[in-house]
Amino acid sequence: MSDHEPTEAAQAAAPSRQPWLHELTICVNGNATALSGTRGDIEPATAHGLYVDDVRVLSTATIRIDGEAPAFVAQGASGARAEFVLSARNLGNPGPDPTVEVHRARALEDGAMVERLVLSSRASAPVTATVVVELAGDGAPIGSVKAGHVVHPTVAPSRDGDALVLDFERHTTRVEFEPQPAAVIVSDHRAVVELLMSVQPGESTEVTMRARTTRRSASVLDADPGHAAVSWGSVRVVADDPRLSHLVEHAMDDLQHLLLRDPDDADDVFAAAGTPWYLTLFGRDSIWAARMMLPFGTDLAAGTLRVLARRQGEKVDPRSAEAPGKIPHELRRTAYLDPESGLALPPVYYGTVDATALWVTLLVEAWQWGMAEDQVRALLPNLRAALGWLTTDGRPDDDGLLKYLDTSGTGLANQGWKDSGDSIRWRDGRIADAPIALVEAQAYAVEALSGAARLLRALGEDGADDAERQAQELRERIGERFWVQTDAGRYLAIALDGHGDAVDGLGSNMGHVLGTGVLTPAESASVAAQLTGDELLDEFGIRTMGSGNGGFNPIGYHTGSIWTHDTAIVALGLVKEGHRAEGALVARSLVASAEAFDYRWPELYSGLPMMGRPSPYPASCRPQAWSAASAGALVTVALGLRADLPAGVLEIDPAVPAPFGALRVEGLRIGDAAVTVSVDREGQVEVTGVPDSLEVRVRGTGG
Predict the structure, then answer these.
(1) For 527-555, what is each residue's pLDDT tens digit?
(2) Running DSSP on this structure, what letter comes out for residue 545?
(3) Ranges for the Putative glycogen debranching enzyme N-terminal domain (predicted)?
(4) Is the pTM of this model over 0.90?
(5) In the list 196, 264, 524, 623, which could disulfide-bond 577, CB 3.0-4.6 Å?
(6) Which is it for strands 495-496 and 236-239: parallel, antiparallel or unpaired?
(7) Phi-psi category of 342—alpha, beta or left, where left has phi over 0 and alpha has psi -120 to 50?
(8) Is 137 helix (H, G, I), strand (E, B) or coil?
(9) Number of H helices, E strands in the chain
(10) 8 A C-beta contact, residue 530 and residue 506
């Protein structure tokens, strides 16, 4: 038995708990992700591993140098790369100063994890050491690991000449070393590889391990990495506040390596929701990520639209929540089962009340940002089907509101973005009864119907008047039924419950209503004041639930934590409604949080500071697509960008006061043009690269 394998008794006694990720080093490239400790070791009996297509193909990959694990010094990760600086304290000169450094560089290439181990010596005499690499795999599905079942029977690689091979039901992984090992020992549960390394004073030597994984069988979503399909290499942000530059650079690297190709058409890419738990297509997440990145091109939006359109609902199926015209919530490579909660989802699941409206709005906005008209027209049948769901099956009774209710007993109880079971609460903390009509879902539908009306009219298509009428009727219902008055003041309720009563919990949901065309100026000002008040805004973002609300928990999933994308959406909405100072305030809070997380935003976190820093939500995905894409939202907020290429207009309305000081953004994509926008500290704007056919309108204090 290995010295780090748990005993059977210890395994039996340990409760099933979702693994925590906040201390792990994570890199990702499309369908593959690697999780390890801060020394780079993939330790058994943990959530560590190399995962491909949601299957753990390596569950052990550890190194020992002359019998000892090298000591941790530093680590970092971005996109598909991770680096570890270690020290072999048992080698080299005696004394407190380390003289033998170990540099471990990991890269996820398409289909492979490549790891270079570099031994550098500053010792006074030559150093010779035996490096032992221990390898094993267990084929564990990601859902099982997420449920806390981290221990699975391991399989040792078999020998194939100089290579080691791990075979599982869906994958084969081949591991090779360069130079060749001195010895390879294979037992029932693991392989031990011995490598001899010698290094002269002042020099370095290295060994490379390559683990290449290929598929043996197909599944519903065998999506390959899509990083090469979208280029953001020309994007460069320079600001007085240097944190913004670091943030945009790291976020785009992460987002690019979360991209996947549609197996039905490899030219179309979309953003997987996040690693490690959601490294697949999620309608809502993928749409929001594409929306936030529209100022940098429409390729991601176009791919996301087509990927989801191919899987748009066609029939009524209560188990999968499918309905004609409905956009799916998520696709998994196999059915998803959480034995702890009883959640059991088919590979294609439609349990979302908002993705359909968001899909429509993404199509409209992509058209405004320059998506080719023939591509837009090709999606009009899907647009009409989506509008059909929004105005029929999406509204299950005669009050005309979008609602959800899981009738299968094994699906999501809540089907908005706050999809945990305890997220929809009254002011006193009670959980609301289903079926639920979320305020933001109604607002999304108003925005979608209004946008679709404009698009259809511009393209000479029928249906615009009906969509406009439906939007106005829904807008009036929101105004009549969702406003509440409590000790916190007057604001929009989170939802209507199953009895038709307004759920008066104070939450960030109302922030998603901003900019959708629902609110009057006075109502918009009221919402802005609530969002930037003491209960919802802290120094690191917008809380999902107000601090005075019953059930408030600053580290609860949707009950007081801060979600990066949620705060970014609020900032966007504030600026759209003309609340530029408030939008700038919220944008600055997000940048403060990014610095604390080394410019790699997690899915969510606690805003209550510990020594001036936010606290991690330990199980949070990192990177997460809509978190990374929030960097694009910050650029939009700071510049006040709005494009309407069909009308020949690019609008710039810089936030005042400037949230990041003087700002220069290169690599904006306005149609086919590469555009640079600069704003000085006084709000004066300079724009270059705009084609003559486009009018630039500078609003606010810019000139």
Answers:
(1) 999 999 999 999 999 999 999 999 999 99
(2) B
(3) 29-209
(4) yes
(5) 524
(6) unpaired
(7) left
(8) strand
(9) 15, 39
(10) yes
